[in-house]
BON domain-containing protein (Streptomyces tanashiensis), 83 residues
Amino acid sequence: MSRSGLLKAFLRPNEDLATEGRRDVVEHLFALSRHRTDVLDAGVVTLSGEVRDSSLVPLSARLTRTVEGVVDVQCKLTAKGST
């Protein structure tokens, strides 16, 4: 099997990555918060928005990295009331 063949097994459409990250990670941790989960380029997920519990922000980034096909996470979540 070629290298490209091996990589294709891990490549997923950006919308699939965003949906899974939103459904499996962000909505469970931040159910009542305003947030976005976007995949803008080749498996790089951006988490953004305002959340109530800032202690869960690092956890959300780590869990998002476990979604198959995610290559990096840019975490731009902020705690409600922080500047």
